[in-house]
């Protein structure tokens, strides 16, 4: 079993608990197991060997029973939004909007690599700002797809360099232009059909 498997992360958590509370390791393991709704540590161990992706194990190891929900954990979400602010600072400076925030999150894929202790997420969301009413409209929304990679160490998520990568960026102005082009093309087809039918 890998060093970063859910079970081994739980064992490390029990060891830390024992050291912090001055318990024997076996007492900390039992306490942790019962807090996770297992009868005892033996049952936890049995479940880990038979069903290593049990939601209780994932929750204890990663802080959330669903890997896709990790992005919503308070420290992760805050750091993520800060990183997006930094990555898009140039683009937002070209708009006439302010006070940007991350909205309409959708995690489209998630996977945990227990050999490396890395969680990979693919996230789509809107980065939206408040339009300055005293300035001409220059767009105020970005539609983004990003890849997020988090490392789980000592019960915490680490944010390593390039942990957020933009894979797709589209603005509301891009979408407006695309809609205009589609309307123009639809009008062209109608005109063509009408003139061809004469």
Strand and helix layout:
Layout: H1 6-21, H2 25-35, H3 41-50, H4 55-62, H5 74-87, H6 89-93, E1 97-113, E2 118-131, E3 141-153, E4 156-158, E5 164-171, H7 172-196
Antiparallel strand pairs: 1-2, 2-3, 3-4, 3-5
Structure write-up:
The protein has 198 residues and is α+β, with helices and mostly antiparallel strands. The protein folds into two domains: 6-62, no CATH class; 67-171, Nuclear Transport Factor 2, Chain: A, CATH 3.10.450. It is 45% helix and 28% strand. It has helices at residues 6-21, 25-35, 41-50, 55-62, 74-87, 89-93, 172-196, and strands at residues 97-113, 118-131, 141-153, 156-158, 164-171. Strands 1, 2, 3, 4 and 5 form a five-stranded antiparallel β-sheet that branches. The chain is elongated and about 85 Å long. The mean pLDDT is 89.
Classify the beta-strand content into a percent band: 25-35%
Q: Report the principal-axis shape.
A: elongated
Q: Cα-atom Rg, whole angstroms?
A: 24 Å
Find the CATH topology of the largest domain: Nuclear Transport Factor 2, Chain: A
Query: What is the mean predicted local confidence, pLDDT?
Result: 89
CATH-derived architecture of the largest domain? Roll
């Amino acid at each position: 079993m890998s060093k970063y498997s859910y079970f081994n992360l739980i064992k490390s958590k029990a060891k830390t608990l024992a050291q912090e509370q001055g318990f024997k390791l076996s007492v900390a393991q039992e306490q942790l197991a019962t807090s996770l709704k297992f009868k005892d540590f033996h049952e936890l161990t049995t479940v880990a060997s038979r069903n290593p992706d049990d939601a209780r194990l994932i929750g204890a190891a990663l802080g959330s029973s669903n890997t896709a929900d990790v992005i919503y954990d308070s420290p992760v979400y805050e750091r993520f939004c800060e990183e997006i602010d930094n990555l898009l600072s140039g683009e937002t400076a070209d708009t006439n909007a302010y006070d940007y925030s991350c909205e309409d999150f959708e995690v489209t894929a998630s996977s945990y690599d227990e050999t490396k202790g890395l969680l990979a997420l693919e996230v789509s969301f809107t980065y939206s700002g408040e339009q300055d009413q005293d300035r001409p409209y220059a767009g105020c929304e970005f539609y983004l797809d990003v890849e997020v990679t988090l490392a789980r160490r000592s019960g915490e998520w680490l944010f390593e360099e390039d942990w957020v990568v933009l894979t797709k960026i589209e603005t509301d102005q891009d979408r407006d232009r695309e809609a205009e082009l589609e309307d123009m093309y639809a009008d062209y087809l109608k005109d063509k059909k009408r003139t061809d039918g004469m």
